[in-house]
Amino acid sequence: MKDIKFSVLIPVYNVENYVAECINSVLSQSYKNFEIILINDGSTDSSGEICDKFAEVDARISVYHQENKGLIMARRYAISKASGDYYLFLDSDDYWDNNLLEIIYNTILEFNCDLIIFNYKKVSDKGDILTKGESLFKDKTVFDNSNKRQLFELFINSTKLNNLWIKVVKSSIVDSTDYYKYKNVKNAEDLLQSIPLLYNAKKIVYIDKALYNYRMNPNSITHTININSINDVTIARSVLLEYLQKLKIDNEYNIKLFYSFYIKSVANYIVDLLNSDIMWIEKKNILFNINNIELYSKALKIIDILILPFRQKLVIKLFYNKRYKLLYLYCKTVNFIKCIMRLIRREHLWEAGKHYIILLLHYYWK
Length: 366
Fold this sequence. Notes:
Blueprint: E1 6-12, H1 19-27, E2 34-41, H2 47-57, E3 61-66, H3 71-81, E4 86-89, E5 95-96, H4 100-111, E6 115-123, E7 129-132, E8 141-143, H5 149-157, E9 167-170, H6 189-200, E10 204-215, H7 229-246, H8 252-275, H9 280-290, H10 294-302, H11 310-320, H12 324-347, H13 350-365
Helix pairs in contact: 6-7, 7-8, 8-9, 8-10, 8-11, 8-12, 12-13
């Protein structure tokens, strides 16, 4: 146990401005027994060449080049090449604090755990710290089969535990699921892969230390609209529902939480969709297809939409009644107001600006 080897799995795609900092943050770790697996997923910039140069000077680094297959397949390929005792996932535009592996190593020695969840920081494009991630539990909280349901309850009603890059995974608990059928999933692939890991782990430790630096890159996949994201979320949430049944925590309360969160996700997706620059005819086709999603239809039967927060309730109500033009107008208005509010905050014009907003709303809705 004292000679733990870590496998750091890094999918790489068009991040030539960030990937060197990412790799260097691993090489500068105070704990040195690790390997780095870089999967160049069809980059069209110089990312692949940068990775190759690192591999030339450090034998712990392996680089594999493939045509673009997407994040989920790149990560599974990295897992297939890993030889460590524990796996960590690092996105190629992010970076670590230099004591991450040492803290993880000491935690494993102390608890002999299968999985560790740690905290993170959000940083700007230039690396300035913006905020620390929310503290979910007390530092060094231990979960096992007696209380693991608390983690799944967070899955049910939030996205706080979804990210793979906040997890350290013992190689023996990695599932053998054929993820090729999920190769096109882009927006919920972390959740999809995290669920079996938490299910398989006998002992999980949460450490409330912000060791990972998550870069708020505006070009990141999580910051751009994906018209298929509601299908991705539906696939992942359907898998989650299966595991709730396996764990026998699919009671009435949790089921209502599960479907309420899903309905809110649909409402938020509709707002993002209608505020996007996608052609109106395509937007209408997507809205029409949502009505045919089985999970959405079931959610409407289980959840009274009147209990939803006002904005989401209004979106779902207008959508349910097929008032698409009015729904479009509402979404655009809300987006416009948000833009004005951001401008006001940035320019410190709140006192003058709030009166303008009130007058605008009065004029618009009278």
